[in-house]
Amino acid sequence: MSALRARLSAMLLAACLLFTGQALTTPQPAAAADPGYLMVHFTGEGATNQQMYLSHSTDGVHWNDLNGGGMVLRSTVGTKGVRDPAFVRSPDGSKYWIIATDLCISCGQSWSQSINDGSRNLVVWESTDLVTWSQPRLLNVAGAIPDGRNAWAPEAIWDPAGNDYILYWATNVPFNGATKHRIFYAHTRDFRTITTPQIYIDRPGTQEIIDTQIIEVPAGVGNYRYVRASGDGQITLEGSNSILGTWTNLGNLSGIGLTGSQVEGPMWMKFNGTGKWALYLDQYASGGGYMPVLTTDPSNPAAYQKQAASNYTMGGTKKRHGWILNLTAAEESRVLARWPDTATNRLQSYNFQDRYVRQTDFDVRIDANVSPVQDSQFRLRTGLAGAGTVSFESVNFPGYFLRHSDYDFQLAYNDGSGQFAQDATFRQVAGLADSTWSSFQSYNYPDRYIRHYAYELRLDPITTATGRSDATFRVTG
Questions:
Q1: Sign of the torsion formed by the C-alpha atoms of 317, 338, 386 and 407
Q2: Residue 66 contacts by C-beta under 8 Å, 6 or more apart in sequence?
């Protein structure tokens, strides 16, 4: 919540704008030290694009892709694809979750299958610092709904009245003579167990509703404590003073030329330190990804204003249905340090120059003609165990690193332990067989180096000319 002075300023600004008809201007870029915004999203269809991506903004309308535009989390559970993610931050800021739709279109499921016999699960990641995430897990939310056929577009909001989270999502289900998507809700405190799902939003007749997101509005702005935006044939706005109470229809955005046939996936963002909000809308019909509309009063459809394309930039990747988190300075520092724009590299063998280090089923070896090529691509991160060292993070399995165990190599998920950090950290030195190439010395076994033997990667002492050639690599793009 803003301080009283900020609230009063926002109210005066809103009143002046509505009275004078003055256009809402795009916020100016913030100073580098100001807390910014973090967007989690997916980027399109296919197994690679239906994963978790992050983007950062200092002003809320100009976005930069993190991690060089590469995925930051990959689902290895359920359909092994994820869409429609949402951030959840605990009230005390000690825990975070990402919840997402378990869905992989064009990589195992068609739209018809996913609508009528899709996953009843959500995919959940958990973190205590916003940068080190658990392995993904499945949360069955629609299995207890009679003939519930899928679970899409999850969201959650903390409910002080119940001292828990209201988790809500869309499920396609036959009920009262109509088979369609309705919004269901359940209570949870840990995103591991939930109460019995109940119908939350059910539009009249055959009208479906899939996407909805709720924000809490500061006192003094509009007439409602909560406002929700829903994709239900329009982008419909509703207001309430209780999350589970009665909601009042406030209108929709068709008056500014944005209908449900053009946009979906409404995503709220409150600008830091101002009385302005952005409602991001996914231009699914044109394939354009997200665009912002700005307002000083989320409950008033007439107060929303479209922005010229020159007033915002969305970065290099397409942003699809996601969620925006207002960062604290400490959160922002951690996030930017974890996912810098680090180049993608391959490790070419010195003595078998048609072969590259690659993972296959999480085993590590050198091979020629690697397909997909991403199995042989890594980001050389600052070493997990300390500065002046390197660690190799997989491009197509982010969070997984080359790690030795019993002197054998695996692609393993970073569990955050000190032992893992040491096992996955190396010193890049002049190539043992050719100083213009590189060799990689173990951090915790400095008498041993990465080398291949019978094409498998090992960690060995190097004592022969063959060993020196086996332990020499070129870092290449």
A1: negative
A2: 53, 54, 55, 56, 72, 335, 336, 339, 340, 341
Q: Is the CB of residue 268 less than 8 Å from the CB of residue 279?
A: yes
The model's pLDDT over 161-214, given as tens digits with 9 standing for 90+, comes to 999 999 999 999 999 999 999 999 999 999 999 999 999 999 999 999 999 999
Let me know: does 159 contact 166? Beta carbons within 8 Å: yes
> CB-based contacts of 247: which residues, under 8 Å, 6+ apart?
201, 228, 238, 239, 240
Alpha carbons 324 and 57: distance in angstroms, whole number: 10
Residue tagged 């008498």 (tokens): 447
In this structure, how many other beta carbons lie within 10 angstroms of the beta carbon of residue 189?
A: 12
Q: Are 304 and 11 in contact (CB under 8 A)?
A: no
Give the contacts of 138 (CB within 8 A, at least 6 positions apart): 77, 78, 102, 121, 122, 123, 124
**371, 377 contact by CB (below 8 A):** no
Helices (H), 252-303: none
Buried b (16+ CB within 10 A) or exposed e, 362-391: eebbbbeebeeebbbbbbbbebbbeeebbb
Two tokens, residue 124: 């959940």
Q: Which residue has the tokens 């239900």?
A: 232
Place of tokens 């449900």: 260
Peptide linkage before 85 cis (omega within 30 of 0): no
Query: What digits encode the pLDDT tens for the residues 389-431?
Result: 999 999 999 999 999 999 999 999 999 999 999 999 999 999 9
Q: Provide the edge-to-edge strand list for the sheet that holds 121-127.
A: 82-89, 96-102, 121-127, 137-140
Contact 370, 388 (CB under 8 A): no
Q: Report d(CA 323, CA 270) in Å as an integer.
A: 12
Strand 248-252 and strand 408-413: the pairing is unpaired
What are the structure tokens assigned to 258, written together? 């944005």
- Helix then strand count (H, E) for the chain reads 6, 32
Q: How far apart are CA 372 and CA 365, in angstroms?
A: 15
- HSE value, Cβ hemisphere, 13 Å, CA-based, for 340: 8
What one-character DSSP code corresponds to residue 133? B
Report the relative pairing of strands 408-413 and 426-430 from DSSP bridges: unpaired
Token pair 């929303």 in the structure block, residue: 304
Q: pTM of the entire structure?
A: 0.89
- CA-wise closest residue to 424 among 468, 383, 475: 383
| Placement of tokens 């690659």 in the chain | 358
Apex 158 CA angle, 66 and 132, nearest 5 = 35
Q: Where are the beta strands (DSSP E) in 361-407?
A: 363-367, 378-382, 390-394, 400-405
| Gap between the Cα atoms of 87 and 96, Å rounded | 7
SS3 32: coil
